[in-house]
């Protein structure tokens, strides 16, 4: 019968556990965010990727006064860990038209970097504005009604 000493067991578990950060909801405000004239991207159970890696992004986007689009894509953190880049595509036939996809390219400066001041961010795409920043995922922002336009 095997008997493990507690420190050895904890070390073993630490070595075999995956190297992912804790998954939680992650929200990004573009152009001031939803409710302030902009757009908010909500990543459900999103884990920030480690430096030099990428993770899937899935969730929804809120824009205008009541538009909700279903969103998916990829998020990557630079090798230095300073910049998070999120490339997403969003669809809502009632808003954008049947078969239409809106794609956005968002960069957030977590720790700064070349040409990227700490806290600065940008978005390029039809749903965004020029500025982007992480925002708190409030209960209202996370609300996904059964029907929406």
Short description:
The chain contains 3 helices and 8 strands; from the N terminus they run αβββββαβββα. Strand 3 and strand 4 (67-77) form a beta hairpin.
Protein architecture, described:
With 149 residues, the chain is mainly β. The chain has one domain (20-142). It is built from three helices and eight strands; from the N terminus they run αβββββαβββα. The longest helix has 11 residues, at 6-16. The protein is globular.
**Which oligomerization state do the chains in this entry correspond to?**
single chain
Rg from Cα: 18 Å
- Helix count? 3
User: Structural class of the helices, strands and pairings?
Assistant: mainly beta
β-strand number: 8
Overall helicity: 10-25%
Outline: globular
**How many separate domains make up the residues?**
1
Integer average pLDDT: 83
Main beta-sheet strand count, sense and barrel state: 8 strands, antiparallel
Main attributes of the structure:
41% strand, 3 helices, 149 residues, globular, 8-stranded antiparallel beta sheet
């Amino acid at each position: 019968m095997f008997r493990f000493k507690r420190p050895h067991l904890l070390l073993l578990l630490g070595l075999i556990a995956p190297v992912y950060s804790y998954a939680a909801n992650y929200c990004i405000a573009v152009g001031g965010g939803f409710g302030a004239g902009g757009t908010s991207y909500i990543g459900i159970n999103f884990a920030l990727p480690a430096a030099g890696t990428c993770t899937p992004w899935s969730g929804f986007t809120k824009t205008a006064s009541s538009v909700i689009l279903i969103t998916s894509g990829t998020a990557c953190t630079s090798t230095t860990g300073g910049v998070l880049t999120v490339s997403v595509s969003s669809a809502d036939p009632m808003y954008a038209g049947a078969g239409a996809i809106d794609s956005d390219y968002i960069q957030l400066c977590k720790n700064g970097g070349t040409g990227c001041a700490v806290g600065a961010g940008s978005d390029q795409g039809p749903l965004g504005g020029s500025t982007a920043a992480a925002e708190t995922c409030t209960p209202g922002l996370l609300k996904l009604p059964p029907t929406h336009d």
